[in-house]
């Protein structure tokens, strides 16, 4: 067998929902009962850093308690047959815990923290971040998360990955958050694009769409069967 085909996955909150991690676009428009602008913007941090820390400390505890589900595991298992690259909008580490080895986090990682002044000063964190916890530059530590209204520096790393895809999978994302949603535009038109979601997002303008209208765990099992039959 020659070199493996490059399978590129763009994943969103729907892939972790079945692990018990709620998406922020729930039907009530809230994220765990909070308005996004109160906990996930630079303005929120300036206004009430304690509230923001409390919110992300709870998110961190939730992720610690969560376990990878069958969708995470299937994507990891596909590394046996494909060169799998996962670009995720998720801040959890469930892809990694399932065994995926090439994961790029567009929106940061819940188990990291950084200086509020210098985003290059990044540290691991498993427990809570507290007010008064300082980075090496003397600045308050904040979650290593890309908030709304902040630039997404990893987007520049993700674009060439999309462009190199031989097979593309979109799983668990509504394509509502930019610039992440725009990454699909960089996948070559002739590439097969599998879309796994119980509610297929708006993808009609793309060629070679193969919808799998199921929750992530069921859809991933079907995806694996189709992909292995294609080898």
Question: What portion of the residues fall into strands of 2 or more residues?
Answer: 15-25%
Q: Taking all residues together, what is the mean pLDDT?
A: 94
Helix content: 25-40%
Please identify the oligomeric state: single chain
Reported for the largest beta sheet, the result is: 6 strands, parallel
Specify Rg, calculated over alpha carbons. Answer: 18 Å
Question: What does this protein look like?
Answer:
- The protein has 231 residues and is α/β, with parallel strands linked by helices.
- It has 2 domains: 1-21 and 69-107 and 152-231, TPP-binding domain (Rossmann fold); 23-65 and 113-145, 2-Layer Sandwich (SIR2/SIRT2 'Small Domain'), CATH 3.30.1600.
- It is 29% helix and 19% strand.
- The chain has helices at residues 14-17, 36-39, 42-47, 49-65, 70-77, 94-98, 155-163, 216-230, and strands spanning 6-11, 83-88, 103-105, 108-115, 122-124, 141-145, 167-171, 192-196, 209-212.
- A 6-stranded parallel sheet has the order 3-2-1-7-8-9, with helices on both faces. A 3-stranded antiparallel sheet has the order 5-4-6.
- Strand 4 (108-115) and strand 5 (122-124) form a beta hairpin.
- The chain is elongated, with a radius of gyration of 18 Å.
- The mean pLDDT is 94.
